[in-house]
Amino acid sequence: MTLAEFWFLLIGFLFTGYFFLEGFDFGVGMLLPVLAHDDIDRRTMINTIGPVWDLNETWLIVAGASLFAAFPDWYATLFSGFYLPLLLVLLALIVRGVAFEYRGKVDEDAWRRRWDLCIIVGSYVPALLWGVAFANIVRGVPIDAEGDFTGSLLTLLNPYGLLGGVAAVALFCVYGAIFVALKTLGRIRRDARRLAGWIGIAAVVLTGAFLLWTLLGHGDPISWALGVLTAMALVAGLVANAREREGWAFASTGASVIGLVATLFVALFPDVMPSTTDPAFSLTVQNASSTPYTLRMMSWIALIALPFVLAYQGWTYWVFRKRIGRHSIPTQVPHGADALGQ
Fold this sequence. Notes:
This is Cytochrome c oxidase assembly protein. By secondary structure, this protein is mostly helical.
């Protein structure tokens, strides 16, 4: 394995970790108006992700920085061609983060409703656009001989890309609902489990269709195997949810998210940005990578730092592992309290 291939795998791992952790974050935000009956319910849902949402987003920062350093040509083409969608993702994440922190600063219903809307929109937009973006990366986009993107925003809004976006939204909604059921008590737990079953039907259909389309166009034996395992994990998660085994349901649904992202990266390899203009113009793992010296230095840094990051992430989730319910939330929001209602 070359250093360039190693860094392709590592970047795939970082994006997989990001969607595995941030996927249920997005799901909780998207389901806020559906599951919550009042402000106490909304604060309960936000508290399920409150201690970890910002830590989850650091995976995106690390993945983006690694992409820039290890594959500068890939980074340049991606961020120039996908500039508007990625800018919208960034703005949505910023607004969402601000909303978490500010919704509890003023004890007024209108104030909280506005910030709740920011959380909802800030969850839907990234989920949809990440699905569209990764679908188009695998499908390929118009790239000329200089590696420049020659399409437009409408180029990205093709049927396959839109299916990828809608499938991501459905899958993250199921993931978020199961996470809420895993982390809460009482009525909201039962409602989340019931909702996960209904949304799960749409998620199976949409994710299955997206996987099949991907594999028929870009699949090899490894990606086909991963795709089948992904579909099986999603179905297993819904079965476990129906049997009220929330831990197994969450693990299986999370495995389906991991499997979906892994399938896309395997189907993409050895390209990193296929060209629909001419296959000879495609960016590959080898021609888009940095120099061997840069990759070697980055490898040492990653091998030293990554275990500490994983350990800290695991410790954080362990500390905040307990379920919460309406009884955990103060009935009055103290003036100046944060969005977690503490």
